[in-house]
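Researcher: Quick test of sequence recovery. Tokens follow.
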């Protein structure tokens, strides 16, 4: 029979008070914040922007119609074109080709840049180098021309400031 040693617990010990904890923006910022974003939602949005006319082979332009290929394409897996035999993913040939961030991280990078956070702050939050952040600014800038809705204005504003973030910039 198991004997429970409860001699260390004084009788009539007061119950610990119910004290729900809290958190602030700093605590969130100390977490891996990209994990808070839903991977599926980010993927769906990014792919819809990258391929507004539907998923196609970047080699011959053939529309992807088979269910297995469409599924692989949407999951970011490799697809083989049934016409030209080229292997590709949903990012092949796009401005995100070869990027080392997950799609939630890409979305978060864009959110932080759009919110006006400066490079050191974004670098800390995203756990990348400040140089990496500058690379992403350039990548987004080159990818989004004035023809893209809303982004031309933002890019022009940033360009007018010499590419620098506003002094004392907008805090998150
Ligand atoms: Zn093809």
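Model:
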């Amino acid at each position: 029979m198991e004997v429970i040693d409860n001699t260390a617990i004084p009788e009539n010990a007061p119950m610990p008070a119910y004290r729900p904890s809290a958190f602030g923006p700093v605590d969130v910022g100390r977490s891996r914040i990209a994990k808070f974003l839903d991977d599926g939602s980010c993927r769906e949005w990014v792919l819809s922007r990258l391929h507004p006319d539907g998923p196609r082979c970047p080699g011959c332009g053939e529309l992807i119609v088979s269910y297995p290929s469409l599924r692989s394409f949407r999951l970011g897996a490799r697809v083989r074109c049934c016409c030209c035999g080229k292997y590709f993913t949903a990012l092949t040939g796009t401005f995100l080709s070869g990027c080392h961030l997950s799609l939630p991280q890409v979305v978060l990078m864009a959110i932080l840049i759009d919110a006006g956070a400066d490079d050191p702050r974004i670098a800390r939050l995203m756990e990348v180098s400040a140089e990496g952040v500058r690379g992403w600014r350039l990548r987004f800038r080159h990818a989004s021309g004035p023809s893209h809705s809303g982004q031309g204005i933002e890019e022009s504003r940033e360009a007018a400031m010499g590419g620098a973030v506003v002094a004392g910039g907008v805090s998150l």
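Residues 57, 59-60, 62, 81, 83-84, 86 surround zinc ion (CB under 6 Å).
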